[in-house]
Specification:
49% of the residues are buried. The chain is α/β, with parallel strands linked by helices and 423 residues long. It contains 13 helices and twelve strands. It folds into two domains: 6-144, Response regulator (Rossmann fold), CATH 3.40.50.2300; 153-416, Alpha-Beta Barrel (TIM Barrel). Strand 5 (153-156), helix 5 and strand 6 form a beta-alpha-beta unit. The strands form two sheets. It has an eight-stranded parallel beta sheet with strand order 11-10-9-8-7-6-5-12, with helices on one face. A four-stranded parallel beta sheet has the order 2-1-3-4.
């Protein structure tokens, strides 16, 4: 059954740009779209010039008033559009949990207040908004053609780790099977996807929007450990996570997935490693908090003793969830044998998933329930942590056709999660 897409426009004060966008889209789309607007620093009232400009175009803003983006916490939107850099930087993290995310680099017309050209600036702002609406309406139409499932369902581009990730082949296959989330695995190397190629990034964003697929997460290349005794290695890892946060902002992704807490062989002096790790996280904290995306550290296997999932969680406890979260890999936990410990300690820290299965010995990334992982406990972890993000799968072909694995994974998903992620 088709749905009515929900869109939220966010600017700085919710007195001009976002209110104008709401009025213009409402006039064009009518009741086919549910539209809200908000601000990260809301004004007390609408901007009078914005009202005059809209009135001159026959658009009535009566009944609209500025409100805080924080007041919409817990609301689900299909698309969030930020207008201007303050909205991009200060957008509350919980609003982006499930939404596709667009950024319009439209300056604040209120910067011209008190100048003779003020009305002309607002006119140009309205024109800039109107020029972007056809592409937005195409995206909303794609969303409307899908039935709203209980949360987004994602697949990893790592399904094709040995190939270049194709937009008209692999990405379209993901969408055709029914997935509407993507994890982009840049750690596979430029043969798979080159994150430094501006044209490749633009093409990926446009193709994902056309297919209604949210680019949910970026898997970091992780060139080092945040707790390494080598300062150059720590700096490389910090630089990589900064790069990935920038990449998220370009692609509208929500999560940077990293092994940066556990990569490397530096566990001989645990006290010193913990001190260096804290120093690195302290350095990362301001940049991560300033980004609409968050860094999610993944549990690993027993490659490094003591650095399993529960221990990763303990290292994150002093920090806000909006900056550093946890991504659950049940396959790693199955090998490490620490799924029960993760269940006890994860709390609200869970912000993404890497769902896959294995035989308890080898990290072979079966589809869920096709190995020996405890899926009843994994279900409980998602339920008890009130996880509302993309249910991201990280299965791999293991000699099978990737399409077959994706379809089997989707079948398993429908059996596993209806009671876990509400509609």
């Amino acid at each position: 059954m088709p749905i009515t897409p929900r869109v939220l426009f966010v600017c700085t004060g919710n007195a001009g740009r976002s209110q104008m966008a709401q009025a213009i889209l409402r006039a064009a789309a009518g009741d086919s779209v549910e539209i809200e607007s908000a601000g990260v620093q809301p004004w007390a009232a609408l901007h009078p010039v914005a009202q005059r400009v809209m009135a001159a175009r026959g658009l009535d803003m009566a009944g609209q008033f500025p409100k805080s983006a924080k007041s919409l916490a817990g609301r689900r939107f299909d698309v969030i559009v930020t207008l201007g850099d303050p909205a991009l930087r200060e957008l509350p993290h919980d609003l982006t949990t499930m939404a596709l995310w667009e950024h319009w680099d439209i300056a604040d017309p209120a910067d011209a207040d008190g100048k003779p050209e003020s009305q002309a600036v607002f006119e140009r702002t309205a024109d800039a908004i109107a020029a972007r609406l056809p592409a937005l309406r195409t995206l909303l139409g794609t969303i409307a053609s899908r039935s709203r499932r209980g949360g987004r369902i994602g697949a990893s581009s790592g399904m094709w780790y040995s190939e270049r990730f194709g937009l008209t082949t692999h990405l379209k296959q993901i969408a055709d099977i029914g997935y509407d989330g993507l994890e982009l695995c840049i750690y596979q190397g430029p043969h798979h996807f080159d994150p430094t190629d501006d044209s490749a990034l633009r093409d990926l964003k446009h193709a994902a929007d056309d297919l209604g697929v949210a680019i949910w997460s970026i898997h970091s290349r992780d060139p080092g450990s945040l707790g390494s005794p080598d300062p150059a290695e720590r700096q490389r890892q910090i630089d990589e996570l900064h790069f990935c946060l920038d990449l998220c902002e370009r692609l509208g992704a929500k999560i940077v997935v990293s092994h940066g807490l556990i990569t490397g062989r530096w566990a001989d002096d645990r006290a010193e490693a913990d001190r260096l790790l804290k120093e690195s996280l302290d350095r990362l904290l301001p940049r991560s908090l300033a980004s609409p995306a968050s860094i999610a550290f993944e549990n690993d296997t027993v490659t490094i003793p003591g650095r399993m999932g529960a221990d990763v969680l303990s290292r994150l406890e002093p920090y806000p969830r909006a900056a550093f979260g946890f991504v659950l890999d049940p396959g790693h936990a199955n090998i490490a044998g620490d799924t029960p410990l993760i269940a006890q300690r994860v709390g609200q820290r869970l912000i993404s998933t890497h769902l896959n299965d294995n035989d308890g010995v080898n990290d072979i990334h079966f589809a869920p329930t096709e190995g020996t992982a405890d899926w009843a406990l994994i279900q409980a972890i998602l339920r008890d942590s009130r996880y509302g993000g993309c249910v991201m799968y990280e299965a791999q072909p293991n000699g099978d056709d990737p399409g077959n694995v994706l379809r089997r994974t989707m079948d398993h998903h429908r059996r596993l999660w209806p009671q876990v992620v509400p509609d």
